[in-house]
Design brief:
Helix content: 40-55%
Number of helices: 11
Radius of gyration: 21 Å
Oligomer: single chain
Length: 268
């Protein structure tokens, strides 16, 4: 039923777009006679906001309802939207697990890295916590998607968290690991929440490049069960170089779907 409603809504939106194409094309014709039809469609959609991505609707909800400069309220408004329209943020339940892992570190972190920032929900949570507990720490927030990058930047600005201590990296995880190694940096806290097939590869690369600190660095992995990173889970549970704790929990914005967060301390 939901799928059928989505299809109907999409068709209605397309009809509405097509109905405005003639008017808009006539309006801009003197200035853009060589523009293709697709460019006009994009403009109609832009002005009419008829077929906007869910991520843009979420941003709209936050900007209309969250208090500027209040990271906690922004997180709350994102969660409010996502309980009705679930998407792949870490969410309030697992977000608390990640927050507690970061806050419980033996020494104050200097370099925090997250792979898979998506729209910046976890970035806002981490940056807000670091500002309170480790104000000198630098957070590298990494995601290669430009739409997510733009939304994340806006949320951080709305929260008052943009600044030199938050590095928004429009890049791939492997490139950032190599960059940090070349700069001689060490990662105190690594949060994995990107492509699940990359968890194992990136954890191994971080170890091989000696980016992890003996006896202190934490590697935290979300969605180990749903959608799942079975190879990473098996490797981490068998690896004597790490002391791993399993947090059995639920998939974000669900009530029954089992998931796990792994918190692994690097020992070697």
């Amino acid at each position: 039923m939901k799928a059928s409603m989505l299809v109907v809504s999409f068709v209605v939106a397309l009809i509405a777009i097509e109905s405005q194409v003639g008017f808009l094309k006539a309006t801009i014709a003197p200035f853009a006679r060589e523009w293709p039809h697709s460019s006009v469609l994009h403009l109609v959609n832009y002005f009419g906001m008829l077929a906007m991505p869910l991520q843009v609707r979420l941003l709209e909800h936050v900007l209309q309802n969250a208090k500027p400069g209040n990271a906690e309220d922004i997180v709350e408004k994102v969660d409010e939207f996502c309980w009705k329209n679930p998407t792949m943020n870490v969410g309030p339940v697992k977000g608390k697990i990640v927050d507690e892992a970061l806050a419980s570190m033996d020494s104050s972190p200097k370099v925090v890295v997250e792979f898979g920032s998506y729209m910046g929900y976890s970035t806002v949570r981490l940056a807000s916590l670091l500002r309170k507990t480790a104000p000198d720490a630098v957070l590298y927030s990494v995601d290669p998607n430009p739409l997510g990058h733009a939304i994340k930047t806006t949320l951080l600005e709305w929260a008052g968290l943009l600044g030199p201590n938050v590095k928004n990296e429009l890049a791939y995880s492997g490139d950032i690991l190599k960059k940090l190694a070349a700069e001689g940096k060490k990662i105190d806290f690594l949060f994995l929440d990107h492509v699940k097939e990359l968890y194992l590869e990136d954890a191994k690369v971080a170890e091989q490049l000696q980016l992890l600190k003996t006896g202190s660095s934490l590697v935290v992995a979300d969605n180990v069960i749903a959608p799942g990173a079975p190879e990473y889970r098996a490797w981490m549970m068998e690896n004597k170089q790490f002391d791993t704790k399993i947090h059995t929990t639920l998939l974000e914005y669900t009530h029954d779907t089992r998931d796990e967060v792994l918190v692994s301390k690097y020992l070697r």
